[in-house]
Write a structure and sequence with these properties.
The complex is a heterodimer. By secondary structure, chain A is an alpha/beta fold. Chain A has helices at residues 26-31, 38-50, 97-112, 116-132, 144-162, 191-204, 214-218, 222-228, 236-245, 256-259, 276-284, 307-313, 360-384, and strands at residues 166-168, 179-183, 208-212, 232-233, 248-251, 288-294, 304-305, 319-320, 340-343. Chain A has a seven-stranded mixed sheet, sandwiched between helices. Chain A has a two-stranded antiparallel sheet with strand order 7-8. The A-B interface holds A 115, 117-118, 120-122, 124-125, 127-128, 130-141, 143, 214, 217-221, 223-224, 227-228, 232-233, 235, 237-238, 241 and B 125-130, 132, 135, 197-201, 203, 234-237, 239-244, 246, 282-283, 285, 322-323, 325-326, 329-330, 332-333, 336-339, 342-343, 346. Chain B: This is NAD-dependent epimerase/dehydratase family protein.
Amino acid sequence: MADAEIIPIGTRGRAGRGSGRAKPSSASRNLAAKRTTAKPAAKKAARVTSRPRAVPDAIEQVTTEAVPQPAPTDVPPAAPRPATTTSDRGPVAGISPAGWLAMLEAAAREVFGDDWEPRLAEVLALLRRRLAGEYDVDEFGFDPEVTEKLTLALLRPIAEKWFRIEVRGVENIPDEGGALIVSNHSGTVPVDALMTMVAVHDHTGRFLRLLGADLVFRMPFVGEMARRGGATLACNEDAERMLSRGDLVGVWPEGFKGIGKPFKQRYKLQRFGRGGFVSAALRTGVPIVPLSVVGAEEIYPLVGNVPALARLLGVPYVPITPLFPWLGPLGMVPLPSKWLLEFGEPIRTDELDDAAAEDPMLVFNLTDQVRETIQQTLYTLLMKRESVWR
Amino acid sequence: MGRVVLVTGVSRDLGRRFARVLATTEGIDRVIGVDVVPPRGDVGAMSFIRADIRTPVIAKVIAKEDVDTVVHMSVIATPGSAGGRLTMKELNVIGTMQLLAACQKAPSVKHLVVKSTSTVYGASSRDPAMFTEEMQPRRNPRSGFSKDAAEIEGYVRGFARRRPDVRVAVLRLANVVGPHVVSPMTSYFRLPVIPTVLGYDARMQFVHESDLDRVLELAVTSDVEGTYNVAGDGILMLSQAVRRLQRATLPLPGFAVGQLGSVLRQMRLADFSPEQLSFLTFGRGIDTTRMRTELGFEPAYTTEEAFADFAASMPAASRLSGSLTGRAVSSLQDLLPPASEKAGARG
C-alpha cells in the first residue's frame, strides 16, 4: 500500500475545480486541509519546474502532489500526470469514423477473441437467418437453435454459479431413444424444470422436452417461450407422440400441488396425479427415469398465499415468500440454495405388454414405485447436503 | 359408362379450378358445377347449372343428370363475400342440409366427398400438439365458421348413417394457400402491416392449392371412405411466416386484435373472425398419418413450400425490403469478408 496514490478531496484552497472562478468557493476552502507553509511552497516549486503552464489554472486537475512519501519510490517523481485538456466538449464529435471502427474492432476482439472475424460473421449469418424466418421448428413448435444458443446459454450460469447444481446418476439417462424422466416439483416457480433441462442437455447433449400444465400455454409470453423451448401440453396424446418419436420427455406429476406447497411441507411428495405418465410410458414401452431434486424447495420459500387474488387472476396461487412482495422485484431473485440432482435407475416398461397400460392396478403400483423411489432418494440427498446453502 | 360428378360452390376460385381439373380426369364423363352465381373465368369442360343448394331445385338437378358423385365444396369461410354472417350461415348449414336431403332421395348417388376444414378442431391452450381424426375439439365452437363446419360434419355423419351404401369421404384441410386463393388467411397475410397477438405465437400448417385439387380428385376417384386430415408436411410458426414475407408486424393484445379485426372487416380489407383470432393466438396442428397410410395421398408441397409459393405471388411493391434490423445486419455482413474465404486463409 506504500505506493498508493492519494487523491485528496477538495482543491486545497486554490481555485475550485470546474467552478470557472479564480477564487475558490467557501465550501472548497473549508475542505482544504490546514497546511504548514513549507509544503505548498515546495509543491509549487516542483510544479513550475516540471512542466510549462499551458492551460489555465481553473481546469487544471490536481492529482499528484507532494504528499510526504514514506520512502523514495521507484516511480520517477518527475513524471506527474499530464493536465487534462479538453478542446471539444461535444458528446461524440471528437471521434473520427476510423476511431469508431477501431473501437468496434476492439470490442469484437474482446467478445469473440482473436478469430473474431469469422465468428462475428457466423453470428451475423445466424441473425440474418433468424430475421428471414429461415429455420425449422418441429410439430410442437420446438426451436432447437434458439433453445441451444440463447435459452440454455442464459440459464447455464444460473445453474452453475447460482445454484451450483451437482448432478448424479447421469448414466441412467439413455443416450438415445425415448425415455420419461419423472421428477419431484417444488419451488413456487418452475425453476426446477428449467434447471433440469440445462443439466440434462449439458450432461447428455440431449434436449429435454417438458410437459407443462395448460396454464403455461394460456399465459402470454410464457406459453410462447415454453413451446419454443420444446415444451408441450401435459396430456397423454402429446406425451405418447413425443415418446414414440424417441424424445427425452420430462414430467412433474405433482403439478401445482407440488410446486405450490407451503414451505413447511418441503420435500414431502404430493399425490402423483392419476398416473397418466405411467400409462404413457407403458404404451410406448420407454423406461421411466426417476429424478430427485434437492434445493429447489428453498429458492422461494412459500409462506403464504392470497387465494382471493389468485382466483381473480385465474392462477392456482399467489405466492408470498419472506422476500416477495415486500422487496418488490428484488424479492423475485431466487435464494442461492445448493442443488443436488440425482437420476435414479431406470424402470423398464418394455417387458410389459400393451394390455398393461389398461390395467389400473399395475399403473397405480408403478406410480407408487416411482414415487417411493424419488421420496427415498430425496431423504438420502438431504442427508448428504451440508446445509441449505452449501 | 363414366361417372357424373356434381360439384357445389363453383363460383369461387377454388371450386371452379377443381371442377375444371376434374372434367379432364379419365373415367369421369361429366362434371356439373352448381352455384347461385355463375363462375367468373374459364370453366373448361364443366357444365354449369345455376341452382341454389338451399332450395329443393338441387334434388331435381341430381335426379335429372343422374349424378353418382357429389363433391360438396360450398362451405364459405368469409361472411363478407357471402353478404353477411346470416347469409353465410344459411348457405353453409341450410345448403348442406338440402344437398344431403337431395342425395338421400337420389338412388343414383354412390359417392359423397365433403371438403371440410381443420377449423372443426378449434384452437385453444388445452389442445394437444397434433389432432388426429378421432379427437374432439377441447372447446366446442360457439360461433362463426368453425361452428358451421362442425354442424356440417354432423349432418354428413347423419347422412352416412342413413345411407350406408354411399361412400362418404370427409377431408379436413389445413389452411389452403396459393397464388389464387382468397381466404381469411391469405387476406390476413396480404395486409401491409400484419397484426399479431402479443405474447403468443401460433403453429400453422398449409396446403397448396394444387394439392387441394389433387386430394379432392383422389377422394373422388379412389374408393376410400372416412375422415382424413390433409396438410402439408412441417409446421410454420406465425412469426416465422411473417418474417418470410418480410412484412412488418403490429403486436397487439388479444382483445385489440379482435377490435382491429372488426374494423378491418367493415373496411372490407380482411375478414377477421373470432375463430381466426383464436387460431392466430394458439395455432393448431393436425396429424396426417392417416392421409398417407389410408388415403394414400402425398402432398407435393410441404407447408414451407406452399407458403413460399404464396409469398412469391405477392406483389413485390408491397413487400418491404426487410426490417431495419435486417438491413443493418446485412450491411454489417457486407463489411466483413466472407466466412468461407477467411476459414480457407486460416486453414
